[in-house]
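Aim 2 progress update. The chain analyzed this quarter is reproduced below.
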Amino acid sequence: MHQRRSLFFVLAAALVAVSLPHAARAANDAPAINAFNAAFANVTSMTWKEQAHEVQGTSQQNRVYDYSFMKPHFAKTLIESGDGKGSGGVWAGGDQVSGHQGGFLSGIHLKVSIHDGRATSIRGFTIPDGLIQNIVAAYADTAGTLRQQSGGKMGGVDTDLLDLKVANPASYGGVTDMRLWLNADTHWPIRQVMYAGDAIVLDQTFSNYNLNANLSQNDFPF
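Predicted structure tokens:
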């Protein structure tokens, strides 16, 4: 019951996912981060899908999100499948989100705090946390030890792997290790996994990128 209440609106995961709260700032650097930033600089608006599995205590959540983003700060999500299917949310850069449930309540829109329990994923991730650029930025901004290495093949493509050992897990929801695989040619993320010790607490995949979505502000009704 608690899980369903917290899923009142679609939110990130993803995680979108996924970017952790910046209780501490770091200055981690890696070629894959710089390459992604250069690729992202050429994008004005985009869409993609995030498939996310999250674990919080004894509760689990599985979802597929449809994500839309337009610079500088417009984001929209819709739960395509999984718990809360049909729910959606829009973020316009402030401290609120506008959201709706799926099903017969889809016509009722409410604005709540971006951190409201009805407006976060099961692990507390928000819409902007699930934005691709924020997911990558977390590896630069989170205090810890970052290492880049070959991630091998994933989905038939070569990958770069960012592996971050979190310095203070208690400040980051208990997460001890964050791993992000990026396409070695395009530099866009493919998968992210977060661990609390040996247990996976977040597993995301990113697909169906449209980097020329030609969106306008009308696509983000707030």
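The radius of gyration is 16 Å. The first helix runs from residue 2 to 6. These observations will guide the mutagenesis experiments scheduled for the next reporting period.
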